Amino acid sequence: MFTGIITDIGTVRALEKRGDLTARIGCGYAPETIEIGASIACDGVCLTVTDRGRDERGGWFAVSISAETLSKTNLGGWAEGSRMNLERALRVGDELGGHIVSGHVDGLAEIVAMVDEGDSTRITFRAPDVLAKFIAPKGSVALNGTSLTVNEVEGASFGVNFIPHTKQATTWGLARVGDRVNLEIDTLARYVARLAEAAG
């Protein structure tokens, strides 16, 4: 489980196709604190650490990415130098600063508009139609692993305001119109919608 509070920005150091795709990701985490088998959310996708170490460029960890994950997320677009939001798994006693995030991506949303509002940026996303019903104004979503509050919803489109801190502490400062982003809907929204269907 995760909270959607990003703790580092990783960089793809190397990619190798060996059945599954193996990625080596440079990070600011001390390698000795990363356990083999630990879960790290990479742009919101829960991946299992298969190796870790340190070289002249600093610490790194490796993960294996299945064909299924590549087909359902934006990780298939990774190349050497790609940057992604990182979050280590929630531990008992950690502060829950965002919302409960599973690291299981529900689908891909597309950035359809970006407008600067003062120092902040309002980004409009288009969600897959099948997921749009789970997104509500003032509700939570995880986009590329970041816990965010929805400002407004119109059909399958919804808007999120990004403050300067979020743009600096995550990869959202690099976002562009046309980008496809990993979307995980709020678990509570999923169950509320299911209960409403059952009651109907």
From TrEMBL:
Residues 1-99, 100-196 form the Lumazine-binding domain. Lumazine-binding repeats lie at residues 1-99, 100-196. Signal peptide: none annotated. Gene3D superfamilies: 2.40.30.20. Pathway: Cofactor biosynthesis; riboflavin biosynthesis; riboflavin from 2-hydroxy-3-oxobutyl phosphate and 5-amino-6-(D-ribitylamino)uracil: step 2/2. It comes from Rhodovulum steppense. InterPro entries: ATP_synth_asu-like_sf, Lumazine-bd, Lumazine-bd_dom, Riboflavin_synthase-like_b-brl. Its EC number is 2.5.1.9. The lineage of its organism: Bacteria, Pseudomonadati, Pseudomonadota, Alphaproteobacteria, Rhodobacterales. One of its GO terms (molecular function) is riboflavin synthase activity. This is Riboflavin synthase. Coiled coil: none annotated. Homotrimer. It comes from the Bacteria. Catalyzes the dismutation of two molecules of 6,7-dimethyl-8-ribityllumazine, resulting in the formation of riboflavin and 5-amino-6-(D-ribitylamino)uracil. GO terms for biological process: riboflavin biosynthetic process. SUPFAM superfamilies: Riboflavin synthase domain-like.
